[in-house]
Design brief:
Structural class: mainly alpha
Order of helices and strands: EEEHHHHHHHHHHHH
Strand order of the largest sheet: 1-2-3
Number of strands: 3
Strand content: under 5%
Largest sheet: 3 strands, antiparallel
């Protein structure tokens, strides 16, 4: 029988804590506090190792792009409504992150990353992009990371695609997918930040499962800002007015 894990023993390669000593993956914390770059330190703790210039730059760009997208974003709405109950900021952030991770919101970046990785494994990326787009359209499915309800051209995309990491494979694939999607759908569906950040982070060497990790961390700071603003500047208890709520009787539900 496989032994059941218990609390008597732990293994970690992240942080070593001893008497008068703290090391992040072997690096003394005092060195990082004095001279550490934030993006490089986050990479060290999250993924291990010292990132090259391109990888640290990619993480920095991704975190900034993910920070906030205004009150209209569902995750921000959840965080602010939670804060309006006078719940503490961390709880409002947690609520907002639960909304952010959905595939129709921040989780779209990981969906795009999975498709880019599928295309990258093929010999002909252009044909692969056309084939994936065709498959999605035939199924009536959206290509995550393209089109946006507020932006005809997402202002975050150029900065994300402009990352200095040398490998540009996935960013080229993202462009190929954009071209194929516009041609086959007949609609002006431009790349948004979800596809761009996915492509950039894949080019930086991260895996598809790391994409939501990075964007979620970035968005957490923006959610904290909104929760703090709500607590400091607004009256408590945001809720829909009763005259905006329509009750549907069980009889009408059965008829439908």
């Amino acid at each position: 029988m496989t032994p059941i894990p218990d609390l008597s023993s732990w293994s970690t390669s992240i942080t070593d804590v001893e008497n008068s000593s703290i090391r992040y993956r072997g690096v003394p914390i005092e060195e990082l506090i004095d001279d550490g770059d934030l993006a490089a330190t986050l990479w060290l703790v999250l993924f291990g190792g010292t990132p090259d210039t391109g990888s640290a730059d990619a993480l920095r760009r991704a975190l900034i792009a993910a920070l906030d997208h205004g009150v209209s974003a569902p995750s921000t709405l959840v965080a602010r409504v939670t804060a309006s109950t006078r719940s503490a900021v961390p709880f409002a952030v947690a609520g907002g992150l639960m909304a952010f991770g959905g595939p129709a919101h921040g989780g779209a970046a990981e969906g795009a990353a999975n498709l880019f990785a599928e295309i990258a494994a093929l010999d002909d990326h252009e044909a692969g992009a056309r084939g994936v787009v065709r498959r999605l359209l035939e199924r009536g499915e959206r290509f995550p990371g393209y089109g946006h309800p507020y932006h005809s051209r997402d202002p975050r995309v150029p900065g994300l695609l402009g990352g200095v990491t040398e490998d540009r494979t996935h960013r080229r694939i993202a462009r190929l997918c954009e071209t194929a999607l516009r041609e086959q759908s007949g609609r002006d569906l431009r790349m948004n930040a979800d596809a761009a950040v996915a492509a950039l982070l894949l080019d930086a060497g991260l895996g598809t499962a790391d994409i939501t990790l990075v964007t979620g961390l970035g968005r957490a700071f923006g959610l904290a800002a909104h929760a703090r603003e709500e607590l400091m500047g607004e009256k408590p208890f945001r809720a829909p007015s009763l005259d905006t709520v329509r009750f549907v009787s069980p009889a009408k539900q059965e008829e439908a």
